[in-house]
Amino acid sequence: MKVVKWINDLNEKTGWISAWIIIPLTFIVVYEVVMRHFFNAPTGWGYDTLWMLYSAQFMLGGAYTLLKKAHVRIDIVYNLLSPRGKLIFDAMVYSFVIFGTMILLTWAGIKFAKEAWITGERLSTTNWFFPSGPSKTVIPVALFLVSLQSLADLIRIISELKKRKER
């Protein structure tokens, strides 16, 4: 299952990148707080930069979180299932809830980002007026990575179900 390993490796690297975004995020927060509270000179770019970095970190970390099975799950019913029942339940969730939804949202995100690039849309939350294309492009990329990870997990689940059936 080379494709599963490739997807897992890709999302492992994406998670690593996502984690490192915290470094510039922290420095900018400290800089903004110092400038605002000690020098009464807030930056015109700090707020936009912070939410763009945080949203990129949050979005890009989603596929890694799915890879590590760290998303919130309500285990009340799940824990009552047999190991085979858990695999079937996971197969249904990955097929219909995660994969299907993420593909639809990826498609919508591509249109959303494309429009921002074509029109030259700019963010107007502060006086910086940064182009919105880069930030909006993170959305479909992150959703596509979650789609890929759910596909990899679905392949793994189906493979495991086949192995159990053969026994």
How many beta-strand runs? 0
Number of helices: 6
Structural class: mainly alpha
Mean pLDDT: 93
How far do the termini sit from each other? Answer: 20 Å
What's the domain count?
Answer: 1
Q: Percent helix among the residues?
A: over 70%
Q: Give the biggest beta sheet.
A: none
Task: Note the run of SSEs as H and E.
Answer: HHHHHH
Rg: 20 Å
Shape category: elongated
The poorly predicted ranges are none
What is the beta-strand fraction? under 5%
Overview of the structural elements:
It is a single chain. The chain has one domain (2-166). The chain is built from 6 helices and no strands. The chain has helices spanning 2-20, 22-38, 46-67, 75-78, 83-119, 133-166. Helix 1 (2-20) packs antiparallel against helix 3 (46-67), helix 2 (22-38) runs antiparallel to helix 3 and helix 3 (46-67) runs parallel beside helix 6 (133-166). The longest helix is centred in the middle third of the chain and has 37 residues, at 83-119. The two termini are 20 Å apart.
